Amino acid sequence: MTTSKKILITGNKGYIGSVMAPWFQAQGYDVVGLDTDYYEGCTLVPELADIPTIRKDIRDVTPDDIQGVDAIIHLAALSNDPIGNLNEEWTSDINGKATIRLAEIAKDAGIRRFIFSSSCIMYGMSEASVVDETSPLAPQTVYARSKVEAEESLTQLADDNFSPTLCRNGTIYGLSPRMRFDTVLNNLMGIAFTKGRVTIHSDGTPWRPVVHVQDVSRAFQAILEAPLEDVHNQAFNVGANELNHQVRDLAEIVLRTVPNCEIVMDPHPGADQRTYKADFSKFARTFPEFRFLWNAEKGAQELYETFRKAGLTYEDYVDKRFTRLKWLQHLMDDGLINDELRWTQSAAPEGMKPAVAAE
Ligand SMILES: NC(=O)c1ccc[n+]([C@@H]2O[C@H](COP(=O)([O-])OP(=O)(O)OC[C@H]3O[C@@H](n4cnc5c(N)ncnc54)[C@H](O)[C@@H]3O)[C@@H](O)[C@H]2O)c1
C-alpha cells in the first residue's frame, strides 16, 4: 500500500459497502464507516463485518466526522431509479447536494482523494452503440440526474488540492451481507432459484454492463492507490468490455446455472428498455495490471451455491429486506422514518435522535 492509510467509506452498511469496507480493512487500511443504516437488519448471509461506523445521515456531516481521514470513498446514496421516482427531492438532496457538501468539507479539511460511486446509468438510452467517458450524458431518471449533478459539481471543485475520481459502475451483482435482489443478475438468479423460471419483461435486447461486487471493491482500491495524475478529476467506466451482456444473455447464463429452469418472455410496453453498452478501455489502459476475477457465469454459480446452502425461499426473494424501495416504504409506513427520510424520534438509534423543539 503506497497511499492513504485512514479512509472513510460512506454507505459502508449497504450492498457494496458491506463487501468493500472489510476488503479495504483486510488490505491494511484503517477504515471508518459513515452510514445512517437504513437497511439495518436486512442481512442475508454472511454476517456484517465489524467496521467502526459513525451512524449519521450524510446530509448532517460535519468537519469533525472526517478528522484525520486521508481519503474518502463515497457510496452513501439512494441507490436506484424506483426510489428516485418515489420522491425526487430525497434523491436530489442525498445523492446530489449532500455529496457536494461532503466534498466541500473534505476539500476544506485538506483531504485530497475523493472517490465517488457513480453509475453508467447516466448514459441513458444512448444513441451511440457503445458509450465511453466522453459520450454525452443522457440521464433519464431522477437517480441518474442526481449522479450527473454530483459529478459536475465534483469536477468544478477539482484543483491542485482536491482530486475527485468518478467511478461509473456497471450494474453490480454477487453475494453481499446486505444483499439486493433489485439488480439484474441477482434478480434473475433469485427468481430462477426459487420459482424455476426467469421472466423477461423487456424484449431481452437491452445491454447491461455487469460487474461483481468484489471486483468493484478491488477496482476502487486500484484507483485509490494510483498515481494522482492518472485519476485526478477523471471519470472511469468501471468494468470490462467482455462484461457487457444483453439481458437475454444473462437469462441464458442463469438457465445454464439453475437446474430445471425456463425462460418466460413476457414483454410489455412499460418494461425497462434502458440500454447501455459501456466501453471500459480507459480503465484497462490506466490499470493494465488489473484483472477482473469474476464474470457473470462465475457470479451466477456463486449465487446458486449460496442460495442452496441458505435454503433461499421465494418469500425471502421477494422480502422487503432485499429490495431497497420496499424497505424504505416499510420504514415510512411504520412511522420509523419521516417525510424527509430521517429516523423519527421513536426509531432513531442512539446519537441520532432528532432535536425536539423547545416548548
Ligand atoms: N448496486 C449497483 O448496481 C450500483 C451500480 C452503480 C452505482 N451504484 C452506486 O454505488 C453506491 C452504493 O450502492 P449500493 O448498491 O451499495 O446501495 P445500497 O442502497 O445497498 O447502500 C447504500 C447505503 O447508503 C446508506 N445511505 C443512504 N442514504 C443515506 C443518508 N442520507 N445518510 C447516510 N447513509 C445513507 C444506506 O443506509 C446504505 O447503507 C450508491 O451510490 C449507488 O448509487 C450502485
Fill in the keyword field for this structure.
359 residues; alpha/beta; Rossmann fold; 7-stranded parallel beta sheet; 3-stranded mixed beta sheet; binds nicotinamide-adenine-dinucleotide
Question: What's a quick, concise take on this entry?
Answer:
With 359 residues, this protein is α/β, with parallel strands linked by helices. 36% of the residues lie in helices and 16% in strands.
Account of the 3D structure:
With 359 residues, the chain is α/β, with parallel strands linked by helices. It has a domain at 6-173 and 211-243 and 275-294 and 326-333: 3-Layer(aba) Sandwich (Rossmann fold). The protein has 12 helices and 12 strands. It has a 7-stranded parallel sheet, with helices on both faces. A 3-stranded mixed sheet has the order 7-9-11. Strand 5 (113-119), helix 4 (142-157) and strand 6 form a beta-alpha-beta unit. Helix 1 packs across helix 6 (213-225), helix 5 (184-195) packs parallel to helix 8 and helix 5 crosses helix 10 (296-310). The longest helix has 21 residues, at 88-108. It is globular, with a radius of gyration of 20 Å. The protein starts with 5 loop residues before the first strand and ends in a 26-residue tail after the last helix. The mean pLDDT is 92. Nicotinamide-adenine-dinucleotide is lined by residues 11, 13-17, 35-39, 57-59, 75-79, 94, 117, 119, 169, 171-172, 178, 180, 183, 324.
